[in-house]
């Protein structure tokens, strides 16, 4: 029976019309004196840390608490990834020169916000040998396998690797593999990873 290292990879995907991003926003304050009227924010007023495009929103200030009770998608966004941040500036709130919110709204995209935004891959560790860290310019870590007469590995490309966390990322992969082969059940890699680092792609290589 194989034991697997489970890797939740972040894929780009559409953010559909009607999806609420209310639970994904982590910054921004509303002005309770301007509650009640939803503000339409076009795609051209929204910026992102990634390469996503097309997202437009309807935002409404909560009548009682001064936060927000509506952040709904009105035009589909494409090309976004889990962990991307979306920023809606105060200037987008409009309203006869009045600001409907007091600071920029920052939304961090989650898998739940997208259709098909995450895929779980199972890496069997029956032939596990070692972890081979790559440089931050490669943005990858290899899991080398022990297979007689040939070289085999799983190459994992990560989002968010930098020169300051590349060794931590390799150590996280190594620790997850170690725990998996010592376990009687599958181990998920993602909780081991440094903050801001997410798997992007897993490729099986054979030579």
End-to-end CA span: 26 Å
The averaged pLDDT comes out at 83
Beta-strand share of residues: 35-45%
Query: Helical content, roughly?
Result: under 10%
Secondary-structure blueprint:
Blueprint: E1 4-10, E2 13-15, E3 25-27, E4 39-41, E5 47-48, E6 56-61, E7 68-75, E8 77-80, E9 85-88, E10 105-108, E11 118-124, E12 128-133, E13 140-147, E14 150-159, H1 166-181, E15 187-188, E16 198-206
Parallel strand pairs: 1-15
Antiparallel strand pairs: 1-11, 2-8, 3-10, 4-6, 5-9, 6-7, 9-10, 12-13, 13-14, 14-16
Keywords:
207 residues, mainly beta, 2 domains, four-stranded antiparallel β-sheet, 1 helix
Written overview of the protein:
There is one protein chain. The protein is mainly beta and 207 residues long. It has 2 domains: 4-11 and 118-206, no CATH class; 17-113, no CATH class. The protein is 8% helix and 42% strand. It contains 1 helix and 16 strands. The chain has one helix at residues 166-181, and strands at 4-10, 13-15, 25-27, 39-41, 47-48, 56-61, 68-75, 77-80, 85-88, 105-108, 118-124, 128-133, 140-147, 150-159, 187-188, 198-206. The strands form 5 sheets. A 4-stranded antiparallel sheet has the order 3-10-9-5, with no helix packed on it. A 4-stranded antiparallel sheet has the order 12-13-14-16, covered by helices on one side. A hairpin with a 6-residue loop joins β6 (56-61) and β7. It is elongated. The relative contact order is 0.22. The mean pLDDT is 83.
């Amino acid at each position: 029976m194989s034991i697997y290292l489970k890797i939740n990879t972040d894929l780009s995907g559409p953010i559909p019309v009607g999806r609420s991003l209310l639970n994904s926003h982590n910054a921004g304050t509303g002005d309770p004196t301007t509650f009640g009227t939803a503000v339409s924010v076009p795609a051209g007023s929204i910026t992102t840390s990634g390469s996503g495009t097309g997202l437009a929103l309807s935002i409404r200030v909560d009548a009682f608490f001064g936060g927000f009770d509506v952040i709904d998608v009105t035009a589909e966004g494409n090309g976004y990834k889990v962990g991307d941040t979306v920023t809606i500036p105060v200037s987008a709130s409009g309203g006869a020169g009045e600001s409907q919110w007091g600071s920029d709204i920052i939304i961090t995209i989650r898998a739940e916000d997208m259709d098909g935004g995450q895929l779980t891959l199972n890496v069997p560790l029956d032939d596990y040998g070692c972890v081979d860290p790559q440089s931050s310019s490669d943005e990858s870590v290899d899991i080398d396998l022990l297979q007689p007469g040939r070289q085999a590995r799983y190459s994992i490309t990560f989002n968010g690797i930098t020169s300051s966390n590349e060794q931590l990322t390799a150590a996280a992969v190594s620790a997850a593999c170690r725990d998996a082969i010592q376990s009687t059940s599958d181990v998920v890699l993602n909780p081991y990873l440094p903050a801001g680092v997410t798997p992007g792609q897993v490729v099986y290589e054979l030579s």
